[in-house]
C-alpha cells in the first residue's frame, strides 16, 4: 500500500495535471491529506505547482519507481495477478478500445465517419456492450482489487459514467472534459500497469 504522500504523487501519473480536488476524487483521500501531501511533494521537488494545479516532475517519477518496487513486490509476484493482467490486456481492454472507436465513428457506405449520435439505437447498443464488458472486468481484475482497493474505486467510477451515458449524457462515454468511461478506463489502466510494473501495450 502507498501512504498518503506516495499515493498523491502517484495520482499525478494518472491525471498528468490536476488540482487537489481532482486528485482527491481519483484517490479517495481527504482533501486536507492531498493538500498536505502536495505541499510536501513540492518542497521535495517531486511535484511542480502551476496556477492551482500540479504536475509530477522527473524527480517525482524516480521517487515513485523506488516506491513501487517496495510497495508492490508481493502483488507483482502473485501468479493470480499475472493471469489477471494477461486476461485484461488480451480481452476486456481490447474490447473497450474497439467499442470506443465504434462509439466515435460509424460506417456509412463502407467508410468510417464521425458519429453524430443521431442514431439513438446504435448508441444504446454500444453503451449496453460497454456495460457487459464492465461487468466482465470486475471479475477479471478481482485479484488486483483484493490487494489494492483503488482498483474497485476505478470500476465504480466507470459504472457511474455508464449510468449517466445510459441516461442520455453521451459525453460520459468518451468525453475528455468529464469522468467518462474512456477517461476513467485510461486512468485505471495506467494505475494497474504501475502496480504490476508492466508497460502499456503498443
Automatic annotation (TrEMBL):
Listed name of the protein: Uncharacterized protein
Amino acid at each position: 500500500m502507498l501512504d498518503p504522500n506516495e499515493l498523491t504523487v502517484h495520482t499525478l501519473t494518472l491525471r498528468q495535471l490536476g488540482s487537489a480536488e481532482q486528485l482527491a476524487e481519483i484517490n479517495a483521500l481527504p482533501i486536507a491529506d492531498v493538500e498536505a501531501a502536495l505541499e510536501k511533494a513540492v518542497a521535495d521537488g517531486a511535484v511542480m505547482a502551476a496556477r492551482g494545479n500540479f504536475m509530477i516532475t522527473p524527480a517525482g517519477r524516480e521517487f515513485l519507481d523506488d516506491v513501487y518496487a517496495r510497495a508492490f513486490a508481493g502483488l507483482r509476484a502473485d501468479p493470480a495477478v499475472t493471469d489477471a493482467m494477461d486476461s485484461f490486456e488480451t480481452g476486456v481492454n481490447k474490447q473497450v478500445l474497439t467499442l470506443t472507436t465504434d462509439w466515435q465513428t460509424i460506417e456509412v457506405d463502407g467508410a468510417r465517419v464521425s458519429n453524430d449520435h443521431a442514431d439513438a439505437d446504435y448508441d444504446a447498443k454500444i453503451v449496453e456492450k460497454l456495460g457487459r464488458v464492465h461487468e466482465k472486468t470486475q471479475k477479471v481484475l478481482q485479484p488486483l482489487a483484493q490487494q489494492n482497493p483503488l482498483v474497485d474505486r476505478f470500476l465504480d467510477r466507470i459504472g457511474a459514467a455508464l449510468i449517466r451515458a445510459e441516461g442520455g449524457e453521451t459525453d460520459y462515454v468518451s468525453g475528455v472534459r468529464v469522468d467518462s468511461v474512456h477517461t476513467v478506463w485510461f486512468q485505471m489502466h495506467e494505475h494497474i500497469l504501475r502496480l504490476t510494473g508492466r508497460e502499456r501495450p503498443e
